[in-house]
Amino acid sequence: MCSASANYGVPTNATYSATKFWVRGFTEALNIELEGEGIHVCDILPNYVDTPMMQSEQSSGDIIDNVDIKLTAEDVSSTIWQASQNRSKVHWHVDTTLYHVVRVLSKFLPQAFIRFFMKKAAGF
Fold first, then answer.
1. Alpha carbon 117 to its chain's center
2. What is the domain range of residue 63?
3. Is 114 exposed, middle or buried (CB count within 10 Å of its CB: 0-12, 13-18, 19+)?
4. How many domains does the chain fold into?
5. pLDDT tens-place string over residues 8-55
6. How far is CA 47 from CA 23, 36, 40, 98, in A?
């Protein structure tokens, strides 16, 4: 399991985000290393998921408050099932339509825009 936090460093969640960057890189390396053995390694990158952990007081903060959490555990498990049946991708994103569009557009936007968006979402 990875996280959308591996796409860009998340302010106020730096340690969590850093560990997810590690998972993403480790997954990419293992995917290449084990391909010859017939083993497919991939990761699942959900955005924030509506779980009891996210509803707890420990998860409060500007970025959590500013993001509309709509993904469910079922959304994630559905993507895990798809990934187990399909070896076409290394990274499987789990997004709402809005965040899918934002993620795709971010590939074409200047890095300064993404940084600005993350700062605003996190309350900086």
1. 16
2. 4-121
3. middle
4. 1
5. 888 888 999 999 999 999 999 999 999 999 999 999 999 888 888 777
6. 15, 31, 23, 11
Q: Which of 103, 101, 116, 94 is nearest to 49 (CA)?
A: 94
- The average pLDDT across 71-91 equals 95
Per the document, the length of the chain is 124
33 CB-contact burial (10 Å; exposed 0-12 / middle 13-18 / buried 19+): exposed
The proportion of the chain whose per-residue pLDDT surpasses 70, expressed as a percent, equals 90
Rounded CA gap, 62 and 90, in Å? 31
Pick from 59, 67, 42, 40: which is nearest to 123 by CA?
67
Residue 35, helix vs strand vs coil: helix
Q: Any idea what the CATH number is for the domain that residue 64 is in?
A: 3.40.50.720
What is the Cα–Cα distance from 106 to 18, expressed in whole angstroms?
Answer: 20
Segment of 2-6, 59-63, 97-101 carrying the highest mean pLDDT: 2-6
In 1-110, where does DSSP find H-type helix? Answer: 14-35, 52-55, 62-66, 73-85, 97-106
